[in-house]
Amino acid sequence: MGEVLRMEDLMVRDRRHVIITGLDLRVEEGERVALVGESGCGKTMSLRTILDQLPADCEAYQGQVLFRGQSLLGMDGKERRAVLFSHVGFVAQNTSACLHPSLKVSRQMYDCYRVQHPKARKEEALERSRSLLVRLGMSDVDRVLSSYPGQLSGGMRQRVSIALALLDDKDLLIADEPTSALDAHIRRQIESVYEDIARSGHLSMLLVSHDLGFVRRLADRVYVMYAGRIVEEGTCEEIFSSPVHPYTKALIELSSISKAERGARLAELGGYVPATGRERPECAFLERCPYSGALCRQPLEVRILSPSHKVRCTL
Questions:
Q1: Is the pLDDT confidence value at 258 over 60?
Q2: pTM across the whole model
Q3: Which of 100, 89, 190, 194 is nearest to 147 (CA)?
Q4: 3-class DSSP state for residue 229?
Q5: What are the pLDDT digits (tens) for 129-163?
Q6: Cα angle 32-247-61, degrees, rounded to a multiple of 5
Q7: Please, which of 35, 130, 244, 296 could form a disulfide with 311 given CB 3.0 to 4.6 Å?
């Protein structure tokens, strides 16, 4: 087992404030890792740091992002994009935005394939595309390939996005909210697609999701993020059976309350995720926490509960 991705003490800021503070996260070979938390906690910005897609006014000013031991932040843009395109597949949250509306699916898949295989014939690319789409549960593949994205359902576009991400053999698949904006029936189908991918080989996964039911079924390990900082991490069993941080407990409780609407965005907790002050050492959750006390305003150390289970909390 080797390490595919590691983020060490990562700090990201824009012109006004710190967005991510001291992020430590790793993904091992063949491992499925989930990053969970409310909107505004910094999950998507963490992915954008990996993918070299930070907004123009943002920068990663401390720490490292390592892909198989190579520093992505230390590469120039061209070299970094080459590594990412060759080894990392990405499925964006908004499939309508990542698929070109004026190009048929077949053209987009062919263009994507020939970037890695410049001498590939169109028939070779289309055969690979057909094979992937069938694997991802599509029956009317030729119609999908001859369609424009706007002619497809949300579930079909999600499958096309996954296929584009996996056209070549990848080491890591990154997915941002892979089941959001889908109805319950299609959501379950897409979940099954990811479960089939997970069972099929060595591919590692990093998933950002509000759907804790999906995370519980698929993930090996879970990182809980709040206000730009990891507040708890552990195996899936540890996080869901023995959560320690009050924020983790609240997310799980809210998710279980709304089982009938599984996959919807997490219900709101009282208060809001702070946008500023994230670099301060005290607990950012203290204003919303029913158990907060004087110790929560002191610098917090990470407590090691087991070799895999860690929490940033005084409880």
A1: no
A2: 0.91
A3: 100
A4: strand
A5: 999 899 888 889 999 999 999 999 888 898 899 99
A6: 65
A7: 244
